[in-house]
């Protein structure tokens, strides 16, 4: 078999991080008792009318700008009509013919080279409510409208992806960008970042696209890869068996590791889209678009490049420290703080030291929840701690102990050092006494050193540090050892 | 006491403010009259004794406390039952909302309460405002007070009837394709369909969102103008509401028509079958000319397509607007064997035949494969109709047509032929499609005693011109002094 080439396009629904709903003033927070965050508008009561949330629309424009889209000077809301109990009005307010953003792109890394994936459109729409099946007395379905009207963007890619790995890379990068520009919290599990995939295959070399299946319910990065790989294999099996792929919607059953048909083409809805007469066109003039473009936060890729160039980070470190927007902010604040406190320290040196310390000590205490993150201590406290390492008050090893105490007590490094006797032994006489004791106790190593094996210096340093329980100033120990051995 | 029903809103307010009568006395008189006559007229679906007396008592307290009083202090007002009233049943004359009680007031209801008006009850209408005779109400049809065997017009037939028969001083209706003007004409009162966006639609249960406007109805032009002043204005809860200064409509009634260029759609008038209507309209035009207006012939080339355009766009929007009545959250639910069946049973039994017909028409017009040929083409012709008016208003300041092709037709006369019924709206539909303000005011009586209405149309937000011209017609015709003989 010459083989088949998969063709994949993705549709991502991302909830936007606005505090209120798309067409009313109800809050968008999670976790409220059912139907607490509702009003006549999001309940679709008779006579209630939608009014667009300007902040949410601006977030959608921000997403468009970050993904290289053309922002439409005039776009329209449209009604997508269908009946379902989670849909209060019997239609969803979405966009159809005139979306807010069009013709963007996202560059992904594939096997070490860059591949550009087209973005067809990014439009704004409202989320549906949530049906809760079989609660209470069992047979009933209850509807919670807290989520109804939450602002979403739908990001539709071109069918430019050729493998499940590419799809995964695209999704990860997309999620990364949306989080860094504050549009989406990247939470796949809670469903605030959801993905459907259109998958088809065609014989390698063929121009024409094969018949596609739409995959739903793929709500984790692992699912995406599994689901797409399984669907590709299924379609190959169908074609190799002489059959034909039919156009349909399939759902991914993770537990059974397979996709199953939900509905065929003939059962597809006719949504009867038409412009929503309750909502005038959304108008964005060039000036306003430019203002929003200027206010666009630094994108994660640019940030990582800048860190490598200016803050002395490796590609790997930059990746770890930009895994979450709040961690990135924390790193930048701490690095800046250290450079300021440690006189004459270069930004690249401060960046490297702070980067190492955050990775080895801080990150394991950090917890994230969507776009929010909680840190054990503030970034200025970390800068303060590393500054007292710089000025020689304590050494790096002690710094870790001090940090642990900072986390436990919330006290500053300076206070802990003053209270706990963590300050380094910088008394030259005391250190020389200790060095002499170590040299006397290890005559054979002294002989090795004198014979040219200067590598044993490290052994002596270790012995001195051990004897002083880490409190000796390592530089002073080093200098004293050299002075006595080389004498 | 018996004199109250025929006093104007101005006279009632004056008595209440001066202490010559209490608002509670006025309310009681109207409530008693409504109680007595509603069995005969069916114009009210609900008479709100408790709410009206409480509102009236509040006005009286304000009078005693020498507080500032609103322009409608103590004035009894009837409200069409497709306007949401907090805590008071709002049915749209439909079984599907038979027991629906809204948790909030429509914008116009808030405005009325703030003006000191006393809301006496909710008036009958064609189900979801779909109809031209009020015979599509699920709760019995309204009668025309000038002849009980005649239709009051629709869909605001209850509001028109209640006002004309003195069961309320003023009323609010809603107008999508003529629903305040046509019943206004049939019942011999003045009704204004404001510019689209002039009055907030918040709390008006939608029929066709791009056309719906709430409109005032009254027995005189001045009262209708005053009521428009009370309800007009920008409202942030309606994204289609216009941020445009409210005019001095009441004061504009005194401005006269000297030098006003009045457009006459000559071919429409000449082709009119009903010579009595034509005669009354010509007499009204004559009186305008006598008062200094200049008559100009104008043409509206695409107006003849208005019925076709309207009966695609309005049902298309309605098919979507009425999707929320699904039996899940409120209103009637008829449980079926599964979800789809519950929808079908609820909507099949909850909606009447005309509403079902329009939902099907609209669903069809929006369907894949038909959208371009029907909905989209209708929108294009709608644009052409609007442009005709733009052109016409270059040579005239207002434009006059009959409101209806005939005076009130008989109840039952057109119920078997929906198309015939739709044609009752041929003059009111074009301004609606163009979003323009239009007013109907009585301009004469037919030989059998039925009123005839003149429609005046103006450019967007020029309602003041309507008020000025209509007052001249009213002064010439003098209908105000003669209520329907059976109810005088």
Describe the structure.
The complex is a heterodimer of chains A (about 475) and B (about 500). Chain A is built from 15 helices and 18 strands. Chain A is an alpha+beta fold. Chain A has a nine-stranded mixed beta sheet with strand order 2-6-7-10-1-11-12-13-14. In chain A, β8 and β9 form a beta hairpin. In chain A, α2 packs antiparallel against α3 (about 220-240) and α9 (about 380-390) runs antiparallel to α10. By secondary structure, chain B is an alpha/beta fold. Helices cover about 40% and strands about 10% of the residues of chain B. Chain B has helices spanning about 10-20, 25-40, 50-65, 105-115, 155-165, 180-185, 220-230, 250, 265-270, 275-290, 305-320, 340-350, 355-365, 370-395, 420, 430-435, 465-475, and strands at about 45, 75-80, 120-125, 170-175, 190-195, 215-220, 260-265, 295-300, 400, 440-445, 450-455. In chain B, strands 1-3-2-4-6-5-10-11-9-7-8 form an eleven-stranded mixed beta sheet, sandwiched between helices. In chain B, α5 runs parallel beside α6 (about 180-185), α11 packs across α13 and α11 crosses α14 (about 370-395). The two termini of chain B are about 15 Å apart. At the A-B interface, loops of A face α11 of B.
The percent range for helix content of chain A is 25-40%
Report the CATH topology name of the largest domain in chain B: Amidase signature (AS) enzymes
Most strands sheet of chain B: 11 strands, mixed
List the uncertain runs of chain A.
Answer: none
Q: What's the pLDDT, averaged over the residues of chain B?
A: 95
Just name the CATH architecture of the largest domain in chain B. Answer: Alpha-Beta Complex
Strand content of chain A: 15-25%
Number of domains of chain B: 2
Oligomer: heterodimer
The CATH class of the largest domain in chain B is identified as Alpha Beta
What distance separates the N and C termini of chain B? Answer: 14 Å
Cα distance spanning the termini of chain A: 78 Å
Q: What's the count of strands of chain A?
A: 18
The backbone outline of chain B, from C-alpha atoms, is: globular
The secondary-structure element order of chain B is HHEHEHEHEHEEHHEHHEHHHHEHHEEH
Side by side, the strands of the main sheet of chain A go: 2-6-7-10-1-11-12-13-14
**What gyration radius of chain B follows from the Cα positions, in whole Å?**
21 Å
Q: What is the name of the CATH superfamily of the largest domain in chain B?
A: Amidase signature (AS) domain
């Amino acid at each position: 078999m010459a083989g088949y080439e998969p063709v994949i396009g993705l549709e991502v629904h991302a909830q936007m991080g606005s505090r209120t709903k798309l067409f009313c003033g109800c809050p968008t927070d999670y976790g409220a008792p059912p139907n607490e965050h509702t009003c006549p508008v999001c309940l679709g009561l008779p006579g209630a009318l939608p009014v667009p949330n300007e902040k949410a629309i601006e977030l959608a424009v921000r997403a468009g700008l970050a993904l290289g889209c053309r922002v439409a000077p005039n776009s329209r809301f449209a009604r997508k009509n269908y009946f379902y109990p989670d849909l209060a009005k019997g239609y969803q307010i979405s966009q159809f013919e005139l979306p807010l953003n069009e013709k963007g792109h996202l560059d992904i890394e594939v096997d070490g080279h860059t591949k550009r994936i087209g973005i067809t459109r990014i439009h704004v729409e409202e989320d549906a409510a949530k049906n809760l099946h079989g609660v209470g007395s069992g047979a009933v379905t209850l509807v919670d409208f807290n989520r109804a009207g939450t602002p979403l963007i739908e990001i539709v890619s071109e069918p430019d992806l050729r493998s499940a790995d590419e799809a995964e890379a695209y999704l990860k990068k997309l999620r990364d960008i949306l989080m860094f520009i504050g549009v989406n919290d990247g939470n796949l599990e809670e469903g605030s970042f959801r993905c459907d995939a259109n998958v088809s295959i065609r014989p390698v070399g063929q121009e024409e696209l094969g018949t596609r299946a739409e995959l739903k319910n793929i709500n984790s990065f692992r699912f995406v890869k599994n689901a797409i790989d399984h669907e590709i294999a299924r379609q190959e099996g169908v074609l190799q068996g002489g059959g034909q792929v039919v156009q349909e919607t399939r759902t991914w059953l993770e537990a059974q590791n397979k996709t199953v048909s939900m509905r065929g083409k003939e059962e597809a809805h006719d949504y009867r889209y038409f412009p929503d007469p309750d909502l005038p066109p959304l108008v964005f003039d060039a000036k306003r678009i430019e203002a929003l473009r200027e206010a666009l936060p630094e994108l994660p890729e640019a940030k990582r490049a800048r860190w490598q160039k200016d803050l002395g980070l490796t590609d790997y470190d930059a990746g770890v420290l930009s895994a979450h927007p709040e961690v990135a902010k924390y790193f930048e604040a701490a690095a800046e703080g250290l450079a300021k406190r440690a006189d004459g320290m270069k930004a690249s040196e401060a960046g490297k030291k702070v980067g190492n310390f955050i990775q080895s000590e801080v990150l394991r205490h950090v917890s994230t929840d969507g776009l929010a993150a909680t840190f054990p201590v503030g970034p200025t406290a970390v800068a303060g701690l590393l500054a007292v390492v710089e000025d020689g008050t304590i050494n790096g090893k002690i710094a870790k102990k001090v940090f642990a105490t900072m986390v436990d007590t919330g006290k500053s490094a300076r206070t802990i050092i003053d209270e706990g006797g963590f300050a380094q032994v910088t008394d030259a006489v005391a250190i020389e006494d200790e060095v002499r004791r170590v040299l006397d106790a290890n005559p054979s190593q002294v002989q090795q050193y004198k014979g040219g094996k200067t590598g044993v210096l490290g052994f002596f340093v270790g012995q001195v540090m051990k004897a002083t329980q880490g409190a000796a100033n390592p530089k002073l120990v080093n200098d004293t050892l050299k002075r006595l051995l080389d004498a | 006491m018996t004199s109250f029903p025929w006093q104007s809103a101005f006279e009632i307010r004056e008595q209440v403010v001066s202490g010559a009568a209490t608002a509670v006395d006025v309310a009681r008189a109207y409530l008693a009259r409504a109680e007595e006559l509603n069995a005969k007229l069916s114009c009210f679906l609900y008479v709100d004794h408790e709410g009206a007396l409480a509102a009236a008592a509040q006005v009286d307290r304000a009078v005693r406390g020498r507080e500032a009083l609103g322009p409608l202090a103590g004035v009894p007002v009837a409200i069409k039952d497709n306007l949401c009233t907090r805590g008071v049943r709002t049915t749209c004359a439909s079984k599907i909302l038979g027991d629906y009680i809204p948790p909030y007031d429509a914008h116009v209801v808030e405005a009325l309460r703030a003006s000191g008006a006393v809301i006496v009850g909710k008036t009958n209408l064609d189900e979801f405002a779909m109809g031209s005779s009020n015979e599509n109400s699920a709760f019995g049809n309204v009668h025309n007070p000038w002849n009980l065997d005649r239709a009051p017009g629709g869909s605001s037939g209850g509001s028109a009837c209640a006002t004309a028969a003195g069961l309320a001083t003023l009323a609010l209706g809603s107008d999508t394709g003529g629903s305040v003007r046509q019943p206004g004409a049939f019942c011999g009162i003045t009704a204004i369909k404001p510019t689209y966006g002039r009055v907030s639609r918040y709390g008006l249960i939608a029929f066709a969102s791009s056309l719906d406007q709430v409109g005032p109805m009254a027995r005189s032009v001045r009262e209708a103008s005053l009521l428009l002043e009370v309800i007009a204005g920008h409202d942030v809860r309606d994204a289609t509401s216009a941020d445009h200064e409210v005019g001095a409509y009441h004061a504009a009634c005194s401005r006269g028509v000297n030098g006003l260029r009045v457009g006459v759609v000559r071919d429409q008038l000449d082709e009119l079958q009903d010579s009595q209507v034509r005669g009354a309209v010509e007499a009204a035009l004559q009186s305008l000319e006598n008062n200094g207006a200049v008559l100009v012939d104008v043409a509206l080339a695409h107006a003849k397509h208005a019925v076709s355009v309207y009966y695609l766009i309005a049902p298309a929007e309605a098919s979507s607007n009425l999707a929320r009545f699904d039996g899940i959250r409120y209103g009637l639910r008829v449980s079926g064997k599964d979800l789809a069946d519950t929808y079908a049973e609820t909507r099949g039994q909850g909606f009447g035949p005309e509403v079902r017909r329009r939902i099907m028409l609209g669903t069809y017009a929006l369907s894949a494969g038909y959208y371009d040929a029907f909905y989209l083409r209708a929108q294009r012709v709608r644009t052409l109709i609007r442009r005709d008016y733009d052109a016409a208003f270059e040579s005239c300041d207002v434009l006059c047509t009959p409101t209806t092709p005939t005076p009130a037709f008989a109840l039952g006369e057109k119920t078997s032929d929906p198309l015939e019924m739709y044609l009752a709206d041929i003059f009111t539909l074009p301004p609606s499609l163009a979003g323009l303000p239009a007013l109907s005011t009585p301009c004469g009586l037919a030989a059998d005693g039925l009123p005839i209405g003149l429609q005046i149309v103006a450019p967007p937000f020029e309602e003041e011109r309507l008020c000025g011209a209509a007052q001249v017609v009213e002064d010439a015709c003098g209908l105000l002094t003669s209520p329907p003989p059976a109810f005088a």
